[in-house]
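pasting for ref
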Amino acid sequence: MSGSDPSRLRVRLDGKFFRLGEKKFYVKGVTYGPFSPNLAGESFPTPEQTALDFESIRKLGANVVRVYYAPPRWVLDLALEHELKLLIDVPWSKYFCFLDSSRLREESRQAVISAVRGCGGHPAVFAFSVVNEIPPDVVRWTGTSQVEEFLDELVELAKSVDSECLCTIANYPPTEFLRCKNIDFYCFNVYLHQQRPFENYLARLQMIADSKPIILGEFGVDSISEGEPHKCDLLGWQIESSFRSGLAGVVIFSYTDDWYKDNRQITDWAFGLTTRDRQPKPSYAVVQEKFAIAPYFPLPATPKVSVVVASYNGAKTLKTCLESLVRLNYPYYEVILIDDGSTDITPEIASFYKTVRYFHQLNQGLSVARNSGVFAAEGEIVAFTDSDCRADEDWLYYLVGDLLKSKFTGIGGHNFLPPEDSLIAAAVLASPGGPAHVMLTDRLAEHIPGCNMAFYKWALMEIGCFDPLYRKAGDDVDICWRLQQRGYKIGFSPAGFVWHYRRSTVHAYLKQQSGYGQAEALLVRRHPEYFNSVGGSIWHGRIYTASKFGVVLRPSIVYHGIFASGFFQTLYSPEPAFALMLCTSLEYHVLISLPLLVLSVPFPYLFPLALTSVCIPLAICIAAAVQADIPKLRRRIWSRPLVGLLFYLQPVWRGWARYKSRLQFRPTPLAASENYELLTRKDKRDFQDVIEYWSDTWFDRLEFVQFIFARLEQQGWQTKTDAGWSEFDVEVYGSRWSRLQLTTVGEPHSAGRILLRCRLKTFWSLPAKVAFFSVTGFLLLVIGIVGGALPWLWMLLLLLPLFAWFLEQEQRDLKRLITLLLDEAAGQRTLLKLPASRLDKQGNPKTAPVVPSSV
């Protein structure tokens, strides 16, 4: 064979899958043996029989053979000759309490070293499994973390012999809680014979595997107990379900009924696809048929998909992005590039891709750009990714497939750090604030990141597409929440992933976090129900990301079942201590650390407390850096210190951007100010908190409210409408110092007449509250420090009532403006305004509510 033959290449990782050469490598395998020892004492048949078996396995359509002993060299050479790869199990004394014996531990280490030394580097090797199915009572006896550490040590030993070899552990449901950090992929032996539980468990395993590939290392059916017809049916849908679920491959137990275990020939089980004398069973033909189709089983339909890329000065990675998108493994799609006013060479790059539909527009922000893509889309489904992403070639195949077989309205997937990205990007990946998916169940998502999401176009149009308010970020969060508020569900496709380049400098990372903080300031106005009192988001699901979003204080716990007999023994991981992370927030620094440091100058006895307040967030960030999950190959001596620094800076930068955005509302628009000047010249009286309008004919209150909202938007007001959770219809932000909540109610009267009541309730704005209480606190602090020497400083407190009077005036002015707008809207709908004398100061009617039409 030539040196360029793919069979001579090493299989390598590729996101959620494997790659051999330039092509993806999907595992389609069978187990082989163990057999009674041959004349050489090897647990394999004779070389002649093995050659015949390998030829039959290739005819089956398989490309991987799982063996349970380290094979001799001639077996490896035969596998290479038949273009097969071997998944090699390393046997050792796993059934004993091996960690209690230094001799057993050393024997285990030597078994791994010997297996890898004898086979490692051979092109026929797919991977090594350093253990197969440790009994759950042994794990409980020894301790979960101790077993994990030992297995990780075995993987390190294997890689010390052959640095490029792939390693895993063959796990099964009774010990699914084992989480080894050093394995390259997950391998599970699963014997479930009902389709729904089988598929549900695969979804669970995908969540366990997270960003790593997963294969089924064993599954099969006994011909004796189940019957060959039933076996054919089970293997058929198990293979198909596995590949449709996004697994990287399957290994069927077993190739033949010839099986030797515990020093005896097994005769009461018949899991093989062939008999002991290698005669194919009917199940052989079924597997052969499914392997010929796998991994790309036909989708139930192939609706046209429009892939939208919104880009602003993204030329650095745009070529890589478009190269991946024009080569997707999906039969019916288009790529739409929206250039949002780029000033770099984006147009030149786009001109090289004739199949890409290119649109240029003035810079209007991310949401408007994505909306332009939606409006231009011809597809039934609209998928979104970013110009700093590279899509896997099967991205749409899995994304659309999972969307079509579910009741989801939208779907998303993973975004992985590309292997060629920088070392700083790897540290950024382990730092807080990156794009992540939030899962409510193994399939149901609460949030999917904007760099990898797809929706039915009709759903986007129904909710008015993306909100133009979000120019840099937050649009993906907003669209998910709005769809969920309509009763729609969003799913997750673990195999539909993209590669996402991270920020490669600290400055770029902090700039991104600043943008996220601005987005949160906008989101809290639209979706207050999802935020806490200081503006932090509240998620109901579990956040899946390389960053832990905080320090984990409690160990994980495992449900073992009674006496460690549970078939599914589940790991329950604790949530990070979010409350503790508040000590790294901007609010903590401003309200606690800074005042204590200032007060420690005149009051030195407070210095230890001030020093402690400064050290607490530093200690938390150091602990977070220690716990950070940084890939070993991407880790340097400075990686964890950098992660600790980013943990310290991120909440400050993001929090400051959030408050800055909330404090920097636009003032009252010019058109409204001119109306106000006209109004105040004519009328100096105070306006009522409740206004009433009368109509002799029925009208729709909701249409009236929508007209008011449209009019406010037209005049340029900053507004927030009820999203279903508020006690008001519209909230209006006036000057920087005031806001107003408008609430309406329609009272039906006889003969179809309507009384519309509008309540206007004014409040201080957030800037007003911050300014008033900051001034108050500052004055009290100054007076407390030097007030004894300068008694006249107490006179400064008289400024507070004056400031409060000014804020009240701002509220009255805003109420006048909105009243004018309501009167204008009522006049256009021939509504008659009732006299204010009919209401008392609290807005309650002093007279009967029935009003004659002559009023």
